[in-house]
Specification:
358 residues, elongated, disordered C terminus, Isopropylmalate Dehydrogenase, 36% helix, alpha/beta
Length: 358
């Protein structure tokens, strides 16, 4: 019988809800049926979160992840001494907390790269705290890319079995339309296909969402579909990829939820985010693809307004851990150049990365 995967869970910003939702999540006995959850963080911070949440679980210090006893009522922790818990001001961005959050990520990555844990499920961090600490990264994705030497990681959302990739992310809608090019669409189709295979998803059709109303109506409402998406889809099909599109965005997510499509390539940030979060905000989980290891994450922030009050919901954290456990047995570990490997199928002119989309 295969051993349950060990999931490293860095607690995020100590002044936010991260520590609280982590300890609450580990009170869910069903998690222990699918994985061995290992908390990464300051033991004093985690102990405080247990007390604030009214939980009776006890800390279990673990030196080697494989030696831990993973059971309800005992929180297995790899302690990282990074911050004085008594000096933390809950609900406020602080340099000390940004530094600690980064240290937790560093330890988690080191364990994953050494093969001592099977995946990482991250709690929320705060951009202002990171900046105050002098951490040269704006978020988890950028940290993980730097720590692993990964080029341009790829984000995927999963909620209720629906998987969504994003052609563009943190750019204006005007700029996003300009990034819908044949080469870019083709590149992302190939990379998304590679990412799915690493997660054990080898069958099913991918759909590329249209960017204009009704997918442009053959050029009546815009040329992006005719000039870029359709040619990219046809070229991907010629490479043997099971993909269709453009599919109108007002129906593609419904069809994916019904099971007609294995995944959807969203053409801009809010198109896919709105679909996923309207369906189930708390259970929309992000997966970072292209890393040498599997990483899942809650898709909400540090919630400073309620931090330290014991009222934060752990639903997203539970789902992030559960999703990491779901895919860990199938995840294909490869070298940290994997994000570029998908491009081997493409003509050289089609491999340009647009870093602004991340």
């Amino acid at each position: 019988m295969m051993a349950k995967p060990i999931i490293a869970i860095p607690i995020g910003d100590p002044a936010g809800v991260g520590p609280e939702i982590v300890v609450k999540a580990l009170g869910d006995p069903t998690l222990y049926q699918v994985c061995r959850p290992l908390v990464i963080g300051d033991d004093d911070v985690v102990d405080n979160a247990l007390k604030q949440s009214g939980l009776g679980a006890k800390l279990q210090w673990v030196d080697r992840p494989g030696d831990g006893r993973y059971q309800v009522g005992s929180v297995a922790i790899c302690s990282v001494k990074s911050v004085d818990a008594g000096a933390i001001v809950m609900g406020q961005p602080q340099a000390r907390c940004g530094s600690a959050a980064f240290a937790y990520i560093e330890r988690s990555v080191a364990l994953a790269m050494a093969g001592e844990v099977d995946a990482i499920a991250t709690a929320p961090i705060n951009k202002e705290s990171l900046k105050a600490a002098g951490v040269p990264h704006i978020g988890h994705t950028e940290m993980l890319a730097e720590l692993t030497g990964t080029v341009d990681p790829l984000t995927m959302f999963e909620v209720q079995g629906m998987r969504v990739f994003f052609l563009t992310r943190h750019v204006s809608l005007r700029d996003a339309c300009g990034l819908v090019t044949r080469d870019r669409v083709l590149d992302y189709i190939v990379r998304a296909t590679t990412a799915l295979k690493r997660l054990g998803v080898t069958e099913g059709t991918m759909a590329v969402a249209g960017v204009n109303p009704h997918a442009g109506e053959h050029g009546l409402f815009g040329r992006e579909e005719c000039d870029h998406i359709e040619p990219a889809v046809k070229q991907a099909q010629s490479l043997g990829i099971d993909v269709v599109g453009p599919v109108p965005a007002d129906s593609v997510f419904h069809f994916a939820l019904e099971g007609r499509y294995t995944s959807v390539l969203s053409t801009y940030h809010d198109q896919g985010h709105v679909a996923c979060k309207t369906l189930d905000f708390e259970r929309t989980i992000a997966i970072t693809n292209g890393l040498p290891f599997l990483r899942t994450s809650v898709d909400h922030g540090t919630a400073f307004d309620i931090a330290g009050q014991g009222v934060a919901s752990a639903v997203s954290m539970v789902e992030a851990i559960r999703l990491a456990a779901k895919y860990a047995p199938y995840f294909t570990r490869v070298g940290n150049r994997d994000s570029a490997a998908a491009s081997d199928l493409l003509p050289s002119e089609s491999t340009t990365r647009i870093s602004a989309s991340h």
